[in-house]
Amino acid sequence: MDLIKRAILIFGICVYSSTPILSNSFLQEGLAEIPIKFLNLAKKSDLVDYMVKIRRKIHENPELGFEEFETSELIRSELDKMGIFYKHPFGITGVVGFIGSGDTPFVALRADMDALAMQEEVEWEHKSKVPGKMHGCGHDAHVAMLLGAAKMLQEHRNDIKGTIVLVFQPAEEGGAGAKKMLDDGALENVEAIFGLHLSSLHPVGNVASRTGPILAASGFFEAVISGKGGHAAIPQQTIDPILAASNVVVSLQHLVSREADPLDSQVVTVGKFQGGGAYNVIPDSVTIGGTFRAFSKESFEKLKRRIAEVITGQAAVQRCKASVDFTAMGKTFYPVTVNNKDLHKHFQKVAKDMLGAENLQEMQPLMGAEDFSFFAEAIPGYFYFVGMHNETQGKLESSHSPYFTINEDTLPYGAALHASLATRYLLENQPKTITQDKSIHEEL
User: Can you quote a single GO CC term (predicted)?
Assistant: First the structure.
């Protein structure tokens, strides 16, 4: 950021910071107390009620990737009320807010905003009002928790030794909104970023993460296998694309079972198979499609190459032709999400101070994908999961289910972790001051 941009940012933060400030003694009792204090603040009824209200309002009005106009407007309105300076748009609907001095160091907190194209099947007071759209992955809660953290941070902004950047991101669900925000300069000057996700597998008050790869690289493919259609009773006069496509599907499964190292987790799944419309007609073509996942760039690129070879080769064996498209429906490849080892140590210290060591869980990598990976490729990043399961309330459905629900008791934990991770990061990573050597000074 050049001098003029920095001056504008600092001026904006100063203008928005003209409201009364609470006592700046918040951080005077030591780093270990910060997470506990933030959790106590986050559990206060007024802040809990605020986050619940925000989350339910967003849940009722879900918007798909790059269409989060009302959600973005709501976020900007809330930031205005808090007196937080922000910039907009990034990635069409994204919002970036700033809390603190406007000077280095800069650390970012990220929340995704988009919903899924699915019909909600949960009957409750705040069910989605938009047919065919649902917050089935918890992004509504992610936004609410980051706004909750923003409230606490803004109240204690005089204690912030640097700048906390609030990243409200569009289009995580397949749209690579993180990449779009990066391209638009959303993380300019930021040296580290944290992101979270709710988990129905872990109890409330627990967190789970790991260092290194945590989520897989993800890609999609679609192939059209073309033959020669005709009457099903005279197959010798046809070139059957259904038979060819069936062989392709079986052969694709061998890429993992027979070509991949068993210790190198990979997935190839065919989820789409479309061809023909009558029982007695062999169609001219069949379309198949699916996804592939891996935990290294090398394995991912090899899978991509072999998928194309298998599809075209197996189609040729059956006298068919095949075309393979890896950009189906505008999908973007997501890189592996890799957690920085130094940020992992930082996360463990903060989470331990807040929740106790017994509530920190080391998790295995998941084959799911996240576009937070684009952020973590560009700068040191850290992604973790916040538990929301409560045995007394019954089983929670997993994300991307039409029956997905959220235990709102977890909202204070996410907000407090956001605030604590960022605040302590800034305090522990202050710019080193140049001190003059005493002997040289005396000699001069």
Answer: endoplasmic reticulum
